[in-house]
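ok so I'm stuck.
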Amino acid sequence: MRTTRLVVAKEKTLRSYQQSQILGLDPVQLIIKVYDFVILNCKKGDMTKASKGLVELISALNFDCQEISLGLFRLYQYCMEKIKNKEFDEAVHILEGLRNAWTQSLPKNEKKE
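replied:
not stuck anymore, here's the structure
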């Protein structure tokens, strides 16, 4: 019983730490975290989590900048199709390229590969 409480307390502390880390990120760093999430889950073959991450990327698009947003939207849709067809490698290839482009936009002291 005591072990269970200890495990629950550790998990709660870990979740709190993770939440504080995410809340402290700037928008670009947050987008990179979502890319990492999608890429990781593609590599694991987890269609559900990878799709949820792509939905988050789509919802983050700002269509005031239509040319860029529409291009990203089409790429995300293509990746979603590949994931649904269990063609994870193709999605990973595209998403890693996009993630790298976002990483290049960070100041040098914030880049974390």
